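Sync notes, pocket subgroup
Present: LS, DG
LS reminded everyone that the earlier model was apo-only. Rerun requested with flavin-adenine dinucleotide included. Inputs:
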Amino acid sequence: MAALCRGRHRWKRIHSLFVLTRNLSGKYDYDLVVIGGGSGGLACSKEAAQLGQKVAVLDYVEPSVKGTKWGLGGTCVNVGCIPKKLMHQAALLGTAVKDAKKFGWQIPGPVCHDWATMADAVQNHVRSLNWGHRVQLQDKKVKYLNVKGSLVDEHTVKGLTKAGKEMVVTAKNIVIATGGRPKYPTNIPGAMEHGITSDDIFWLKKSPGKTLVVGASYVALECAGFLTGIGLDTTVMVRSIALRGFDQQMAGLVTDYMETYGTKIAWKCFPKRVDKLSSGALQVTWIDTQTGSEYKDTYDTVLWAVGRAPETKALGLDKLGVQVNKETGKIVLGADESTSMPNIYAFGDIGEGRPELTPTAIKAGKLLAHRLVGQSTEIMNYDNVPTTVFTPLEYGCVGLSEEEAEKRHGKDGIEVYHAFYKPLEFTVSERNSSQCYIKVVCERDGGQKILGLHLTGPNAGEVTQGFALGFQCGATYSHLLQTVGIHPTCAEEVVKVHITKRSGLDATVTGC
Ligand code: FAD
Ligand code: NAP
């Protein structure tokens, strides 16, 4: 009862604050209300505030099916890029420790990994980021409201607190940046009851143990990669192909490396049911589509990484007539992030056809803020977005896959330069470099404009980021050749690439 009274008291204070702000700003409480305090929403709200707008951001985290909760900052900070990259780093360090012995480090006894220490450190870092975001909002005078938002009309948002209290805020413009959440398969008995998703894995207090990861895209392969790297028995179940949409030769190198690294891959298999045994183990029954046979094995954890669904349920889009794609559930957007309703904008993972990446959400949010205050007309360019899959052997790329370049320009319209190279750091440690590869896809005629650049290897994200600048500037193959390498690096192999696939010559780099 006392807690209820305290809640009521706080609510009254919040409410009177709104009355006050409404009175100060005239027609609307705010110039801009942003629903969703993730990568995109925070960037947009802070930018708009810096441009002199009166801004509020609503962020509310619905706990995962398993009850996992987190703070301000959205998917990337709490259950995405940040904890994922840190756990990837934990795995890379495990490999580095093994390499270290070859470099003379005396490491007595077996090297073991402790999940609880890693998870605690990662979770503490994430909490520090949650706090940092709150401080930044305060410093930039953005009002943060920990409420679940829904649309009432094109100028009005209703907020619902955790305790079920309602509030209403009005704004000249409304931005939706509510992102997405992991999906569970709907037709597999026991999937939701016994499985977890990426919303849970980074917040587990205890090691997931022997894990089955279902799915074969970014999330599945990255999670399986770091779980293997920290020493867990890990299987990936792939129903069709790995990394759909990516260059399939590169995808093959990524999964080949994972298999040599210790990840088991069940190709062309799909789970049929998950049962909890009396021992507490999870028994998974699956079908191998190549043989048609049914198999069973037990796991400590089943991680579903079967894609993400847009977070629109609570928004009331249908009532207002905001157009969504019926198949994907995502909001249909114009190039300027406008929805079908005036004054309502959306971007980030919630937007139909938008890349589901943090940097694109941030950039789109900042550009939108500038346009909303009339400071710019620049719209987000979603072409040439570089990306990296943080698997044990990282894969970075920008531009078209070889398949897509061939589709658009014809097989004879492209020239593919390629090289298999050995990172210097793999030599002394005697690591297998068979999957370290570079592929530069160019137009065959004219200036040989680069259409796509792909590489697998250590620090592929860092390397790709640099080349993405050249790509954005319209680099050609001759620009690449004119560029002087930095020796000895993996990146220099990109500017040295000279064997064409068409020639059939051995593409293995020998010597410097
Ligand atoms: P989000 O960051 O998801 O933020 C949306 C926010 O809105 C959330 O806090 C949500 O709780 C809140 N919300 C939802 N509904 C409401 C409501 N009605 N009212 C109030 N608040 C609401 N991208 C990369 O670029 N690099 C990576 O390495 C990378 N790794 C990833 C790893 C994993 C495991 C996952 C799942 C994703 C990864 N991503 C990565 C993708 C990246 O996290 C997303 O693209 C990015 O976070 C999208 O930002 P957003 O602003 O659109 O939405
Ligand atoms: P995704 O790219 O949509 O891939 C879903 C995967 O699950 C596919 O391999 C799909 O196989 C498989 N799948 C779907 N339903 C299945 C089922 N019922 N049974 C078995 N397999 C099933 O999803 P995601 O990996 O969750 O990634 C979501 C987005 O997050 C990505 O698009 C990416 O932009 C972002 N992300 C980025 C990074 C990064 O930048 N490093 C990292 C993680 C996530 P099919 O191919 O057969 O359909």
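DG: Residues 16-73+120-182+309-372 form a domain with the FAD/NAD(P)-binding domain fold (CATH 3.50.50.60).
LS: The chain has a mean pLDDT of 94.
Action: DG to write up.
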